[in-house]
């Protein structure tokens, strides 16, 4: 088994290069996308420390790679060759299927996530925790409410996956609701 530091370094180097190649920034900011994926990994590192039996090396890799298929030209085969089938399958589950209507994408992804290990559930929870920052200035109140509603669905659907991250997400949703006037 790969140690956590080696897993982190391998995955962040790969993902940072892929996201930087398309000059991807965190939406609504001038921050490079590597900040987002590092924050997701930070949530996983802390959750892993308090979650018995948690496969931290696997979860850290998935956290750092969770958007490479969705946002870059990276292929499943490339992820599989570099990180193994389990990581590639997890990243695929966390990737929205663009062939579906917008309304179906979340449910489809959550169904695929739920078919995998609790570490994959944890990455989805950590991703939404990280995304529940101050909304971009151009978002309408209805968009903010929709995003909060999606967070509620994620929390409900992935209940039982990781108690620590579920509690973190509840707190973030409550704070985010203030932006939605809810």
From TrEMBL:
**Could you tell me which InterPro entries the record lists for this protein?**
MESH1
The species this protein belongs to is Cytophaga hutchinsonii (strain ATCC 33406 / DSM 1761 / CIP 103989 / NBRC 15051 / NCIMB 9469 / D465)
Q: Which SUPFAM superfamilies match?
A: HD-domain/PDEase-like
GO molecular-function terms, A-Z: guanosine-3',5'-bis(diphosphate) 3'-diphosphatase activity
Name the chain's protein: Guanosine polyphosphate pyrophosphohydrolase
Keyword Hydrolase on entry: yes
Q: Any idea of its EC number?
A: 3.1.7.2
| Gene designation per UniProt | spoT
| Keyword set, alphabetical order | Hydrolase
